[in-house]
Structures are given as C-alpha cells and as structure tokens.
Amino acid sequence: RVIDAPPPPELRVEAVAYGSVAARVGRGTERLGIEVDGRVTRTLDVPKGPRSVSIALPVGDRRIRVRAVGLGGRTWSRAVRTYVLPKSARRAGRVPGFLDARLQRDLGSIVARVPATTGVYAQHLVTGCGAAVNANAQFPAASTLKAAMLVDAVRRGRARELRGDLDRMISVSSDEAANRVIAALGGGSLEAGGASITDTLRDLGLERTLVRRGYILTDRRPIPIGATNAPALATNFITTPFELGRLKVAIHRGAIPRGGIGRLGIGRKEARREVLGRLLRVLDRTKLAQGVPSDVPLAHKSGFTRHVRHDAGLIYVKSGPIVAVGMSWNDSGVSHTAGTRFLSKVARSAVRRLEGGGACSGIPLRAKR
Which residues on adjacent β-strands are paired with residue 315? Predict the structure, then answer.
C-alpha cells in the first residue's frame, strides 16, 4: 500500500517565546528537522503517534520552520517569526529589591564623571539585587514614555487601528507618529490623550510620571526658566528613573503573565505581540544597547533632546532579567557621545555585576541559569 507523508507539523508560537516553542506532530512522523533563519540546525527523533514536542531555540529574533520526516516522505510547517528570550525570562522577581554595595559604588563612580544631572536605577529581577543614584528625581522624559503610550493604546483596544503609527513610534521613535497616537487616544485632543496615558500610569502605581500633551515639532525653544543643578520640568513628559524602571517591569510581568500591565486588562498574547515584541526590536543600538553584549536580548526605549539623554530597558541575561535605567540632563545640553558613554557604562556595569545575580542583604530570590 502507499504510505503517505506525515502531516505538516503545527507550530504553536507567540510573538515572544521563552526558550522554546511547541510543535504538534502528526502520525507517521519519525524525525523532525529544525530550521532556524533558513538553516537546518538539528534533527530530533519522535516517538510514534501524535504528540506535542518542545523545541529549544537560540535567543534572538528568529524565523522558524519544522520539517516532519516519515516513511512516506517529508512535509514542512509554515514559517513563523518569534523573538526568543532565555527560559529565565519567565521569572518575575520583586521591585524594589536589596542594595548591592559594589554596584552602588560602580554607579556612583559613573555618575560622578558625567557633566550633567543624572539618575540611575538597576536591579536583577530574580535575586532583587541592585543599586540606584538619584532615582526618584523627576526628569523631562523625552521619548522614553512612548512605551507608556504603547501600553495605553493596547489597553484601550486601539493597537490594530494604530499599528503603523505604533510601529514607527517605537522602532524609529517618530514624534509625528507619537502625536497621532496621543491624539487618537484623546479623541482628537493631545491634552485628552495625555490624560488617558497618565491615567494608565496611575493605575500602574506610577505617581511621579505624567504626559501632558504631544511633542513640540519645532526648533523653537522657550526662554529657559529653571533651577541650578536640577532639570527644568517645562515639558509635556515627566518621569523618574525608578518609575521608568517600574514601567518596564510592569511590561515584563504582563508578558509572563504575573500582573504588571495584565492588571490593565492586557492579555499575555497582546503584551507579547504588541508591547514587549516591539521593544525588543527597537532600532536604536546606541545608549544602553552599546553596553549590552550583542547576543543578549534588550527590550528598551530611549529618549533624547538637546538637553537630555535617557534609556530604560530590560536586559535578558541567562540568570534572569535585569532592569536598567539611566537619565541625564544639562541646561546647556548633553551630547550624543557623552550620553551614550554614560548609558553604555550603566548597562555594562549592571550586566557585569548582576549577570550572576549580584550580592545583597535581605532574603534574595535564588538566581537560576
């Protein structure tokens, strides 16, 4: 009799995966061939009968297909794309955590060399170990709060309608696209849109962060009215390093799901597809990204104007996620070079000290690789 080829495997994949994906395998399948980014990387023997098989994958932005091989021939699954994080990224951890004295000294030394008012927050989310400098000071937020706009748009059920603008707002940090998003969230009003986003921030427990209205799309600058050695807050976007860190942690927890933006009614699949997936594919590879090893996933949103250089992100090292935030302001300006040097040092120090979990007092959670 004629033996048919096994049916094509069915990949069960979301926008963000945690170490592996599942494939439903039909009868007659004896082996699976795993293709990652156009290259078959390995094969797996499969016991007889239909079953679900877990397929481990390398971290990064991956295009995946699976080939079923049996006596009657071979068939391929459809190709899917997912961003693979390490298994440890499923851990939620706690915020705030416990002081790592060595990291505190390292960050203090970095901050002391920056010719600007700065704030820093860094923490390993599994062990709780971390450090902070001036982390509750309010800064002009620049583009960092585009992550909050993204969360609010998803919460309000507008992600599909605003997809193109959300992509441009996050991937290339377009202010024009952000203003269209803010206006849409406010029924045509930038002020009402800012209030909607601020309401979402309040519902996440962020009391020192706000959005007033849209971005000013002009080179005109107001007469500077400020205080010595403190950021002038004559801006539509205000936040602190600590609250930016909490926002990123809320996104991380919503994707697991362990609360976070899930408390806003955003489901796990939406959190991964619409929020975390976008932040993992931000095109800016300066600032924090310059201090993170190229093979380590980074979900971040930076922001800059002539006066500020900021970045806030989740660094997915093998032992678990690290949240890292750096903010800098100077009334006479912060250069791209100085800002990137500062932020890359923050990321490098956080990874170097916390990739093994860090060392802190209290009762830290145990880091698992």
Answer: 298, 322
47 strand-pairing partners? none
Give CA–CA dist 212/145, Å, rounded.
Answer: 11
Q: Is the dihedral angle over the CA atoms 265, 267, 273, 276 positive or is it negative? A: positive
The burial class, CB within 10 Å (0-12 / 13-18 / 19+), for 134 is middle
Of residues 303, 309, 301, 289, the one with CA closest to residue 351: 289
- Residuewise pLDDT in 10s, the chain (369 residues): 678 899 999 999 999 999 999 999 998 899 999 999 999 999 999 877 668 999 999 999 999 999 999 989 999 999 999 999 999 999 887 678 889 999 999 999 999 999 999 999 999 999 999 999 999 999 999 999 999 999 999 999 999 999 999 999 999 999 999 999 999 999 999 999 999 999 999 999 999 999 999 998 865 544 343 333 455 566 789 899 999 999 999 999 999 999 999 999 999 999 999 999 999 999 999 999 999 999 999 999 999 999 999 999 999 999 999 999 999 999 889 999 999 999 999 999 999 999 999 988 654 444 443
> In angstroms, how far is the first alpha carbon of the chain from the final one?
50
- Percent helix, percent strand, percent coil in the chain, to nearest 5: 35, 30, 40
Cis peptide before 224 (omega within 30 of 0): no
Q: Give bridge partners of residue 131 from the DSSP assignment.
A: 122
Paired strand residues for 55 = 21
Instruction: Give the predicted TM-score (pTM) of the model.
Output: 0.87
Burial 179-204 (b: 16+ CB within 10 A, else e): bbbbbbbbeeebeebbbbbbebbeeb
Whether 325 and 298 have beta carbons less than 8 Å apart is answered as no
Which DSSP string corresponds to 165-177?
HHHHHHHS--HHH
Rounded Cα gap, residues 48 and 15, in angstroms: 30
